[in-house]
Specification:
Helix content: 25-40%
Largest sheet: 8 strands, mixed
Number of strands: 11
Low-confidence stretches: none
Distance between the termini: 35 Å
Radius of gyration: 18 Å
Mean pLDDT: 95
Length: 255
């Protein structure tokens, strides 16, 4: 398998692991709409294969995002032609959110079942409440997050590690095309550097291995040193590609 094929498999897996509430297919692009919660779920994403990159695409995307009262945001992986990036420069779009796409063969990852880590096929009310608290979500954001999780159609598991009855680390994983994607990996900020997140990640890897997955992937902000160190430590060491966002110049930076 070429690195390009693997990169596109990972792109598909990450899209399915963090779905949008609404979406539109447009000339080789997937436009995602989720009431403004995160840029990934509210941006135009390229699909594998031929795609439109002309000025007409920009105008069509702007019309659709404005219809939903959202800023127009393009998510541009480094594996696509730079032509659109240049056109967005000319249109005055800002650049933000550089992120890395990491991958590791499951055979080389830290895989460990942990009796203290709860693995759920569906998140409980307590899991959602802890996630909302750790992510500092507003009530509206909590509702949108729950709807996005409810839209996941691929196999998924929701992990939580509790100490003295309180969740200290959470995450979930979703499997597509034999790849595990990690999402929403988070630790109580008052209990970091104790290996809690690592235990949750390793437990999800054990679940994925039992489900027949062969690799694992995730997306992480390029300047998040603590997260990068964690993922290096568990074996997600290969950077397949990067991506960044382009935001229309008149839109407020609210995502």
């Amino acid at each position: 398998m070429t690195s390009a094929n693997l990169a596109w498999r990972v792109e598909e897996t990450c899209l399915n692991a963090w779905p949008a509430l609404r979406q539109v297919l447009l000339n080789g692009w997937l436009l995602r709409f989720s009431e403004g919660l995160t840029r990934r779920a509210n941006s135009a994403n390229p699909l594998r294969g031929p795609r439109e990159t002309g000025d007409g695409l920009i105008a069509d995307c702007e019309a659709l995002y404005h219809r939903r009262q959202l800023p127009t945001i393009f998510r541009l992986p480094s594996i696509i032609d730079p032509d659109l990036n240049e056109r967005l420069d000319e249109a005055g779009y800002g650049s933000e959110g550089e992120s890395c796409v990491r991958y590791g063969d499951l055979a080389a990852l830290e895989v460990a079942s942990d009796s203290a880590v709860q693995l759920l096929s569906r998140p409980t009310r307590e899991w959602f409440a802890a996630m909302a608290a750790l992510q500092n979500h507003t009530l509206e954001q909590r509702r949108t997050y729950r709807r996005i999780i409810g839209a996941i159609a691929v196999p998924a598991a929701f992990a939580g590690l509790a100490i003295d009855g309180q969740f200290v680390a959470l995450a979930y994983g979703a499997i597509h095309d034999r790849l595990l994607c990690y999402e929403s990996v988070i630790t109580d900020p008052h209990r970091q550097r104790r290996g809690y997140a690592r235990r949750v990640v390793a437990s999800l890897a054990a679940w994925a291995k039992d489900e027949g997955a062969e690799g694992a992937c995730l997306q992480v902000e390029a300047h998040n040193a603590a997260a990068l160190a964690l993922y290096d430590g568990v074996g997600l060491k290969t950077e397949l590609h990067r991506y960044h966002y382009r935001r229309e110049p008149t839109a407020p930076a609210r995502l």
